[in-house]
Amino acid sequence: MPLYSDVLQNTNSNAPCLNITDLQVNGFGIFADTAARDALNATIRTEGYLACMNDSDKVYIYTSSSIADVDWTNTANWQLTGVDTLIGLTDTPAGYGTSGQVLTTNGTDAAAWEDAPSPVGVDLALNTRTNAYSVAGDHEGTVLSIGTLGLTVGTVYMWDGSGEWADANAGAVATADGLMGVSTATATAPDVLVSGIIQLASVPGSAGDVLYLDTTNGLLTATAPSGSTEIVRVMGHNLGGNRIYFNPSQDWLEIV
Fold it and tell me: What is the pLDDT along the chain (256 residues), one digit of tens a residue?
């Protein structure tokens, strides 16, 4: 590393080595604290002096043309470079939030940590869960909030085109070829899961088995229908523990 016997200076004011807020940097030093900076020898002081403060991890630039003690020690003449707050906000968020939270702003002057919301629309939502599955109806996935009738938890329904859910049944095309869903609750107009995982009171077959629409209203079966005019439509898979992955196929076969 080269050694220099005196202060290095760039005497060309039209070609500054470093420019901060339209002020050419004419000197540089690292100081333990403000007292050490104030004690800098007057022969080295200059406008545009850059001071790195070890005690605060901040960098300041001297903006006055005077190097007199009264000016050099005046903190008003030292401008902080860079920022340590969120630009355009009146405050900074407290701490780091909690696991899974997201930082949100109101678009104007405030920020806050909030629980990450599930995407929710007018008629459709993507629900996720953090608690273990325990009772029939516990679910996560894509749900629709349409229809006005009372439904039964765990029952498979088909959107019938008249604006309501009707019992799905593999006995005929008319009750087996449409949009399918599983009710997530026994209630009036509950959410209906159209794709995802749901806990049921009981599930036919064993873990890993393919599930088909049954020829009994609203049920699933691990055995494909085989009678004339019956419909074979895959509805999902048995996950074990009375849970299913519900993902109705868009294809179906009519037995002749």
Answer: 455 555 555 566 665 556 655 677 888 899 999 999 999 999 999 898 989 999 888 899 999 999 999 999 999 999 988 655 555 555 555 567 787 788 887 777 777 888 766 677 889 999 989 899 999 999 999 999 999 999 999 999 999 988 899 999 999 999 999 999 999 999 999 999 999 999 999 999 999 999 999 999 999 999 999 999 999 999 999 999 999 999 999 999 999 9
Q: Give the residue among 131, 117, 249 at the shortest CA–CA distance from 194.
A: 249
Same domain, 184 and 218: yes
Rg (CA), the chain: 35
107/137 same-domain check: no
Domain shared by 171 and 143, yes or no: yes
Show the domain range for 55: 19-80
Q: Looking at the 3D structure of the chain, how many domains does it have?
A: 3
Asked if 101 and 146 sit in the same domain, the reply is: no
d(C-alpha 190, C-alpha 199), whole Å: 15
Give the number of C-alpha atoms closer than 13 A to the C-alpha of residue 141, restricted to the C-beta side.
20
| Same domain membership, residue 163 and residue 99 | no
Question: Does residue 7 belong to any structural domain of this protein?
Answer: no
Residue environment code for 20-54, b if the CB has 16+ CB neighbours within 10 A, otherwise e: beebbbbbeeebeebeebeebeeeebbbbbbbebe
